[in-house]
Amino acid sequence: MLLAIEKSRGVPVTKLNEIADSALIQKSGQAVAHNLADGIKYYDEILTQLESKVKLNKDGEIEFFSFAKYAKKKAKKNKKANIAIIMAEGSIVDGDGEIGEIGGNSMSALVREARLDTTIKAVVLRVNSPGGSALASDIIWREIILTKAVKPVVVSMGDVAASGGYYIACAADKIYASPNTITGSIGVFGVIPFTGDLLKNKLGVTIDRVQTNEHSILSFNKRLTPEEFKIIQKGVDDIYADFIGKVADGRGMKTEQVDSIGQGRVWAGCDDINIGLIDEFGGMNAAISDAASRVNISTENIKLKVFTTAKTDPMLEALITLQEQDNNTSSVKVSALQTKVMEMLNFAKSIESNSGIQARMPYIYWID
Questions:
Q1: Do β-strands 131-133 and 358-360 pair in parallel, antiparallel, or remain unpaired?
Q2: What is the pLDDT of residue 315?
Q3: Residue among 129, 137, 163, 178 flagged as catalytic
């Protein structure tokens, strides 16, 4: 980040650190003095500047187009599209998933649709996921492999593409990420917590059971036997071996190499490029341009089609509709605290709803 600011604003990194450590910027004017801002203006002055840039006459009025409305129009399916953008955002879960989740079945269906669409010449997979169900990740990976056999697949990583998120990305022809993308976390785990003592000691609830065979019950209210622990551990080991094998195949590495950077370790993009987990720094535009060049589509002839399983909350959809009907272009504001609370709730729900071995980051992180 410091290097990017130095490049764009012409302020040396040493000076930036001095500004931060000495709290030299406490008012907007001081930001201008230190060349981190270009000027101080009121809203009306910004409007005047915009009017000048778009060459409006004095009687004209700027007509603003909200980003939400713009994005919605851009995302509409293009019948003449030649590049598919597949959005894989959220935790990876079995089945079709809910709002903010990547369903193994629904996402693999989208990839399959893009593969079978003869007008689509290349695919860009946008991954922003901390992972989730190992089974669902494997189902999606399989569709990526089948698609790669008939048309190029390029991955663009967002803030995080870790564990199962990396699983579904590793087979791509090329992987783009940002220097601060959180990825890797090549590892899996299985959890069957024992709650029996808690229920008995805190609530006075005891549990009786009837079972047909030795291992009929693996549940929260029955403590695992040493043999059952070994059975689950073997499942974890087998899936991890499969995971690192697929990463090795996709990235042209040896399984021993992948294991040495795996074991659940989390990496930033600036390290990934040196250890072989990504190919190049860049965002969506870079990935789209790369995909187009692989099928000889010029920049001016790129036509995009967005594939997404995102399901909008009905209430949020109603608010957006009302917003678009109103001249007020301000977006629905959600506080940082609300966002964090929702992330914690969704994380807890995803852990609760998933069974089997998980390929996910076992925690939520925020970078402040």
A1: antiparallel
A2: 46
A3: 163
